[in-house]
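Give me a protein, keeping tokens residue-aligned:
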Amino acid sequence: MRFLPAQENITAGVIGLGYVGSCIAATLADRGVDVIGVDTDASLVEELSGGHCRFSESGLPELVSRLAGTTSFTATTECAAVASADVVIVTVGTPVRDQGVLMDLQLRSACEELSKHLRPGQLLIFKSTVPPGMTRELVVPLLERSGLTCGADFGLAFCPERLSEGNALNELRTFPIVVGGWCADSTEAAAAFWQRALGVEVIRCASLETAEMVKLADNWWIDHNIAMANELAQVCATVDVDVLDVISAANSIKKGSGSVNILLPSVGVGGSCLTKDPWMLWRSAGERGLDLLTIPAARQVNDGMPRYTFRLIVEELAKVGRAPEEAKVAVLGLAFKNNTGDLRATPTQPVVAALREAGAQVALFDPLVDDDEAEKTFGLRPCASVEEAVRDADCLAVLAWHRPFQSLDFARIRGQVAASCAVIDGRAYYPRETIARLRELGFAYRGIGR
């Protein structure tokens, strides 16, 4: 097959060893692919080479540690190292500025550097999220500065990254992979690579643009669905209805080839994808003369949830006669979602900022985040323990429900907090039995739409 060697042993280069790149590199190496990882961050390369992983992802630190010092995975800052790779996977970041203006510096730099080391016969796979058309219009011309021709001398495919933080390694080994190539040979080579390397189903797309659009469509749907859930929660709260009961019953109906699938409301939407990908598509559509209406609406709803959560906290404090400036609030869980340490665009940050602006004393704790990163993000150093954070607290705001929190002993905590203490449930989705137990212990309880 063109652009993919027939021999069983394949060498893959991974350019960009951030969260996505590290997950892919480690998984491929664990599956028997010799991996050469490249990143411009020398400290990150040193950490990975020494078996240390800075990303809080289930199973990833253990896998990186196990691969350290083996021939299966090497990390370097030198892009020239990928010249020996059969397949080169590009996973650099593609952040956006306000309302979807793409910051393409990392992608441009990776392509320009890669063009210096391309050789005939290589297969290039791009996973960095871009607006539809950018792989064809920007990436390929930069690569062809090498003097080689895409589709004739080297293969190229776009394969959108669709991992969910907290479950990424499992999803890499099980989720279908979407492939759209520059040409039919590129598509088939990329499909064959993923099937050989990961043994997963591959969905072949008709073009690069189709594959580019898939990731944007996924995140457009997710963001819009969550916005509906968040507004549904607010409506339920006005009529004293538990939104989780409504969602559970509503999701029981079949529709089309599946079922109604309303997602869960929460303190807000964060992370590196859902907060930017819809805007990226909105701007791309606008440049083509199409004004998309649902994307700004969903973004407005989801961006407003931290303020809504802040108001819930203030309301619960008022019920016991405490003004914000007289209260201590312990925020448990700082990351943008459950079971990850990622603080990028975390909706917890504006909640904390609003509390501090209102004069509240705020204590932070999250067992999964890096304390230095947390201090940069929140302007506060997290407490060393749950006990320190909750001491004398008037409110416990549980804004990320990590697995370590599932063993929280609220009976013991009850003796450490203030006489009147509220629990604000931002993502724990406590069952009725837990809520009843909290109230028996003397806590007030308030959830998003509950």
Notes: Residues 208-238 form the longest helix (31 residues).
